[in-house]
Amino acid sequence: MFAFETGLVAREATVAAAHQIRHTRGVTDEAKKLLEEAMKLPVRQRARLVSSLIDSLDESDEADVEKAWIDEVHKRARELETGQVRGLTWAEARRVMLGT
Fold it and tell me: In the chain, N or C terminus with fewer CB closer than 10 Å?
């Protein structure tokens, strides 16, 4: 994407975000003020800010996913230890996966 197009996309995204937050219930006055201040920034700085905010959302999701996987591993280990499930050899697992 060319710099001009990137600027237009960033501008459209920030205008849409500003419109949405002004008309969204449950958004704090503090968040509205932050948005108004952010809208005064140059396009590149707003784009970096948006990117940082999105990254911060991804981090919390990653932590939740990581915890869920750790919980799942512990559950599966308990199932193996208690005999609730039986492990497969590689040959058995391969047959299951390939349907042979």
Answer: C
